[in-house]
Specification:
The protein has one domain (7-152): Transposase IS200-like (Alpha-Beta Plaits), CATH 3.30.70.1290. It has six helices and five strands; from the N terminus they run αβααββαβααβ. It has helices at 7-13, 40-49, 53-56, 83-102, 124-132, 134-137; strands spanning 23-29, 60-66, 70-76, 114-117, 150-152. Strands 4-1-3-2-5 form a five-stranded antiparallel β-sheet, sandwiched between helices. The longest helix has 20 residues, at 83-102. It is globular and about 40 Å long. One of its GO terms (molecular function) is sequence-specific DNA binding. It holds the Pfam family Y1_Tnp.
Length: 155
């Protein structure tokens, strides 16, 4: 698949580094911000990928939330993969499985992703709490526990 050429996409990739052991906050959106994951079976299929050991390899998913049209992941990168390779594998697998549920042949995710490498002094637990509170802030639920598509090891 050819890489998008618009300036925003290139800006996302400029300066991106993969540092083993570092924690990254990742945001990725669905193609055209379509709320694919309002469809419960598609959300279930995608969510299963986020904690699959064979996809993560030696990286660790510290927290995640799957919203109707985007996802946030807090990942501690392992030694085996670059950040881009890991995210591409997560997106590809979740897209394939969710697409089977919705009958969508083309990819579900938009190209690219936004990453923020956390500094040592940043509070991982605070970032994890911010991630899982996303459905609450979006008005989808009244309590975080009422939302089905999140998990965190740091709460």
């Amino acid at each position: 698949m050819p890489m998008p050429s618009h300036p925003g996409y290139r800006a996302l990739r400029r300066g991106r580094a993969s540092c083993p052991g570092a924690a990254y906050l990742i945001t990725t959106i669905t193609r055209d911000r379509t709320p694919v994951f309002r469809h419960f079976p598609a959300a279930c299929a995608a969510a299963r990928c986020f904690e699959t050991p064979t996809l993560l390899r030696d990286s660790h998913m510290l927290a995640w939330v799957l919203m109707p049209d985007h996802a946030h992941w807090l990942i501690q990168l392992g030694e085996v993969d670059s950040l881009a390779a890991l995210i591409n594998r997560l997106k590809s697998s979740s897209s394939r499985l969710a697409g089977k549920c919705t009958g969508t042949a083309r990819g579900i995710w938009a190209a690219g992703f936004h990453d923020h490498g956390l500094r040592a002094e940043e509070d991982l637990q605070g970032v994890a709490r911010y991630i899982v509170a996303n459905p609450l802030r979006a008005g989808l639920v009244r309590r975080v526990g009422d939302y089905s598509f999140w998990n965190a090891v740091l709460l």
